[in-house]
Amino acid sequence: MINLTKLESLASELRAQIIENSHTSNTPHLGSCLSCVDILVALYFKFLKINPKKPQSIDRDRFILSKGHAAPALFHVLAKRGFFPEKDLESYGQDGGIFAEHPPTPEHLPGIEAATGSLGHGLPMGLGMALAARVQDKNYKVYVVLGDGECNEGSVWEAAMMAAGQKVGNLIVFVDFNKWQATDRSEEVMALEPFVDKWKAFGWDACEIDGNDMGQIVEKLSKENKTDKPLAIVAHTVKGKGVSFMEDNNNWHYRIPNAEEVLAAKKELGVDL
Amino acid sequence: MRNAFADEVTKLGQSDQRLMLLSGDIGNRLFDKFKEKNKNRYFNCGIAEANMMGVAAGMALSGLKPIIYTITPFTTTRCFEQIRVDACYHNVPVIIIGTGSGLSYAQLGPTHHSCEDLAIFRTLPNITVLAPADEVELRQCLRAALKLNGPSYIRIGKKGEEIIPKTNNSFEIGRSIKVRDGSDVCLVGTGTIMPIVLKAAQMLEKEGISSRVESCHTIKPLDLQMLESISLKFSLIVTIEEHSKIGGLAGAISEWLAIQKNRGTRLLSFGTEDEFMHEVGSQDYAREKNGLTSKNIATKVLQSLKES
């Protein structure tokens, strides 16, 4: 069984790769990627019942990165997990390639469950997959990562109500609550708080954790959900987590790091790539 | 037409365990038989069409065959982005039913009219766009759409539509049906306006004009073979649809015709005007206001033939 230290070092390594990739491919949304890396690592390396050799296995757990602009984080995690060769990422951002700034459709990249990028689509599609498990008598779970800014979208709450109404207990949402959306503090744009209570009011089991603390993520996911309610984990995170000069600085929603900044970031992460 | 839909979908549900029926909180009692015979495969998704479309795509991505049913504006324009991204971009077999299309709900006001659905769906990659004339074509459309591996849209009427007489019952997506043969003019109609088109042909016959009539149930992909044939044979092609003159059947055919070489064929189109209807009235009243009557069609066709 993979231990916490290994998961944490994987997260640091992936952060460094994602930062390097942003520099070489001129891809933005670094801050949004870095806030959710720990959640992705915990899921892909410890909890998801998946087989990278059989990405379409009908019994697999499903994962949807509904905040699709954090695609670079997902692509690097999928490559590291063996869904496709890490070498393929060298074509990132190149003309004619498949690695866009958002996840493509499943038929174009192994490991992707749904193309996202337009916000508010991932949870409804995830709900459809979770209901499909019930109809087909399967036991898989569906995990969806939402952004806090994404929760502006009404379709998130339409899906939330239906999931609770249909008692979809195999659906787990992480809200990557990094307190920022593209151009403002999320709480100042639309009232999100009390966020946990909001999910509860929509009929979900809900809790909050430190979403950049691997121990807390693992602990939460290790507890079996015995109710028929969907579960929302409001994960307090830091946008740009792991690099001091990026943390909680919303310029890194769009900024691309230069070579010196990449070096400085790697040094802070203790990763020599 | 909606009763035929409920009946057909109930039958199909029994033979295909992947078939799911998702309703946007309409069809009270309409689907009781489906629910009884296909337990756990009916979902009332509430008044939340964006979510419903996403849920359907998620189901289709998981190997199911969802059919979405609600009133046309709400299953088309209301959730257009979910149709574009979740269904069409993923290219999954979601069947979207728009019930009460065109001016079927004329008395409910423009919020419930749908005279732009064909136009907007035509622009989406991967989707098949169908507008059956009557319940016979509807059942055929549904069976054919279920065999597709990608998304489809079926635009249907409300209830009590006339069944148009045909000499044979063959049906294929993308192949228009010749309902009547003729030599002077070709009337190409789509959807539940077809009985009016046929009556217009009968009126023209009394004036000595022989009309071929096509029931063009598939708007996308267009029946290019039929178009090739009629554009070489007739100097006047007439399109009739209970839909805006912009972008639907008339739009599709004119886009095709404009780039053909050596055709002297003209197009005359009948459809709804580029405006919202502020007067209340029945479907017949609304059709009349938009010139969608047999008499108006026959008169204008006669005029047009005289001019050429």
Describe this entry's structure for a reader.
The complex is a heterodimer of chains A (273) and B (308). By secondary structure, chain A is of the alpha/beta class. Chain A is 40% helix and 11% strand. In chain A, helix 2 (30-47) packs parallel to helix 3 and helix 4 runs parallel beside helix 5. Chain B is an alpha/beta fold. Chain B has 2 domains: 2-155, Rossmann fold, CATH 3.40.50; 177-307, Rossmann fold, CATH 3.40.50. Chain B is built from 12 helices and 12 strands. Chain B has helices spanning 2-15, 32-37, 49-61, 72-75, 80-89, 117-122, 135-146, 194-206, 224-233, 249-258, 283-289, 294-307; strands at 19-23, 42-44, 65-71, 95-99, 128-130, 152-155, 177-180, 185-190, 211-215, 218-220, 236-244, 266-272. In chain B, helix 8 (194-206) packs across helix 12. Chain B is globular and about 60 Å long. In chain B, 54% of the residues are buried. The mean pLDDT of chain B is 97. Chain A binds chain B through residues 58, 62, 105-107, 113-115, 118, 120-121, 123-136, 154-155, 158-159, 161-162, 165-166, and chain B through 20, 40-41, 43, 45-46, 48, 50-64, 66, 81-82, 85-86, 89-91.
Present the secondary structure layout.
The complex is a heterodimer of chains A (273) and B (308).
Chain A: H1 4-25, H2 30-47, E1 62-65, H3 71-81, H4 122-135, E2 142-147, H5 154-165, E3 171-177, H6 186-189, H7 195-201, E4 205-210, H8 214-222, E5 231-236, H9 259-269
Parallel strand pairs in A: 1-2, 2-3, 3-5, 4-5
Chain B: H1 2-15, E1 19-23, H2 32-37, E2 42-44, H3 49-61, E3 65-71, H4 72-75, H5 80-89, E4 95-99, H6 117-122, E5 128-130, H7 135-146, E6 152-155, E7 177-180, E8 185-190, H8 194-206, E9 211-215, E10 218-220, H9 224-233, E11 236-244, H10 249-258, E12 266-272, H11 283-289, H12 294-307
Parallel strand pairs in B: 1-2, 1-3, 3-4, 4-6, 5-6, 8-9, 8-11, 11-12
Antiparallel strand pairs in B: 5-10, 7-9
Helix pairs in contact in B: 1-7, 3-5, 8-12
